[in-house]
From TrEMBL:
Name of the protein this chain belongs to: Universal stress protein
SUPFAM superfamilies: Adenine nucleotide alpha hydrolases-like (SSF52402)
PANTHER family, alphabetized: UNIVERSAL STRESS PROTEIN SLR1230 (PTHR43010), USPA DOMAIN-CONTAINING PROTEIN (PTHR43010:SF1)
Pfam families: Usp
Domain UspA, first and last residues per copy: 3-137, 152-289
Organism: Mycobacterium innocens
Length: 290
């Protein structure tokens, strides 16, 4: 078993490496830093002068840069480096995950996310829908003072068919040896009601929904889905960013989101809520396969 982190020199910075080290240390396993170099689509171009030299230099630069970041933060973690060629970065990462029997894949956010804390590119988006193992995404400029993960929080949609996601998250928390929390977000939309209705009606509806969500959370305990000591919270806010900023996060916390299967088309399906939570989350997000 290992934790795989995708890394390419000069692309996403050390945030993913920072998270991957903490995950590997928490799981008491090794860390594999994978650099994927894309093969040209035309077979003849592989023989073009300079391609092999460019690929080798890119792999060497990535390993050197990763080693520089990890030198001071990876104490006690066995780190290996893999250079893998594939026609797509996402496909190459999945091959590495399967080769080393990885338990988790860690990715970084693009540094130019503007207002978003997490900005995923096409590679990460494809992996979120296709990875056979959970995918963890670090926010921009992520840097935890904790050497390990400290708590696992499960995002619960308060829908009747979401209890299975909570069970999976609870099992992961036990596997990782982490305290467990379940939260539901009650968010006021931009256009809940027309202006003439007024904010009072919006607040009343939001409060009623939050109360209903709290009842559904408590039902997780009465139904035996979670233990009696698990923290249950409903977080309200004026939009997703506000709600996530109002949430009490611990240093070293991980937010887990469940997904829905889509048969053979994709392993996971991320709805609009999950996408907004990932975009604005101040802590790393763990996306579970469907």
């Amino acid at each position: 078993m290992s934790v795989v982190v995708g890394y390419l020199a000069g692309r996403v910075g050390p945030s993913a490496l920072q998270l991957a080290v903490r995950v590997a240390r928490t799981l008491n396993t090794s860390l594999t830093v994978a650099t994927i170099v894309q093969k040209p689509w035309l077979p003849g171009s592989l023989t073009q002068p300079g391609y092999e030299q460019w690929a080798d230099e890119l792999a060497a630069d990535s390993a050197t840069e990763a080693q520089r970041y990890l030198r001071t933060v990876a104490d006690g973690v066995e780190v290996s480096y893999r250079y893998h060629e594939h026609r797509s970065v996402s496909g190459g990462l999945i091959e590495v995950v399967e080769e080393v029997h990885a338990e988790m894949l860690v990715l970084g956010s693009f540094p130019n996310g503007r207002r978003a804390r997490v900005l995923i590119g096409s590679t990460a988006d494809w992996l979120l829908h296709s990875s056979p193992v959970p995918v963890a995404i670090s926010p921009r400029q992520y840097d935890s003072h904790s050497a390990r993960l400290t708590r696992l929080t499960c995002g619960y949609s308060a829908a009747p068919d979401s209890a299975g996601v909570v069970r999976r998250c609870s099992a992961l928390a036990r596997r990782y040896g982490l305290p467990f929390r379940v939260i539901t977000f009650a968010v006021r939309g931009r256009t809940m009601y027309p202006p003439e209705v007024g904010l009072h009606a919006e607040s009343s509806v939001l409060e009623a929904w939050a109360a209903q969500a709290q009842e559904m959370l408590e039902k997780l305990k009465t139904d035996g889905v979670v233990g009696k000591d698990v923290v249950l919270q409903v977080i309200t806010g004026n939009g997703w960013q506000h709600a996530l900023e109002r949430t009490d996060w611990q240093d070293g916390e991980l937010l887990a989101l469940g997904t829905s299967p889509r048969g053979d088309i994709a392993r996971v399906f991320l709805g609009s809520r999950s996408g907004k939570i990932i975009r604005h989350s101040p802590v790393p997000v763990l996306v579970l396969p469907g």
